[in-house]
Specification:
By secondary structure, the protein is α+β, with helices and mostly antiparallel strands. The chain has helices at about 1-15, 90, 115-120, 125-130, 160-170, 180-185, 230-240, 240-280, and strands spanning about 25, 35-40, 45, 55, 60-65, 70, 80.
Length: about 280
Amino acid sequence: MKITRCAFVLLLALCAVPAWADEFDIGLTISSYPQLVLVPGYPVYYAPEVQANYFFYAGDYWLYDNDNWYKSPWYDGPWELVDPEEVPDALLQIPIRYYVAPPTFFFSWIITDHPHWGEHWGHEWERRRHGWDRHEGHEWGRPAPLPDYQRRYSGDRYPREREQQFELQHRNYRYRPQPPSIQQQQTQPVQIAPTLPRVNRPPEAARPLHRHEERTTPPAVPRQAMPQPEQAREREQGSVPPGIVRREQVIRGNQGTAKRPEREGGREERRGQEQERGRDR
């Protein structure tokens, strides 16, 4: 029963600690944090003052030594051996001029070109890593931030244990590398259809007529009934509306007809008076 419990506790302890690959001592010692310079056109840093093919990419330090690739989360190891088929394309495309300690077989190639890894590692490797040398087909994105917190750890303060390195990195370095498929989705630009420019047409101006063109006469407007002279005068003087003018005409006509009987009566009275004067005589 005690043996079973001990085995269970040991299994939990192994699960809590991250699984590390085999560690290798490559005989390189870096006493302090190295100076890192960004390679133009690549999200990769190299160390010009370190006498080794030393790089930093995607949160890890990479080292090419004795035809092997190594990586480590800390600048002075311990180092982990990486299979050639798992080396990122960005590192494989670094031009030869940024290898501080290039191997002898690099000298037959142009320094501005990347190493011919397919020629060196064979056609079988190149078949499995098809497209590794196509720079135009890769979307690198932004380079990973440098872990500057490691400057405080040098000499005797440098952590040699993997567990201690993992704890310090988890506490001070927030960058986490993403799979290449996710990086391409984030860095791939979104193509938006361009909006067509809006054409503002100027208003059409009146075109002058030429001599041989006929002038078009405007359509005839029906003439309105002209007002009577009296109505026109009254409208000019008092601006009387047409309805009021007609009503005044009717009133005047009625007054004229009313005076006529009075004039006829006056004539009869005169005749009667003359007849009476004749009789008296």
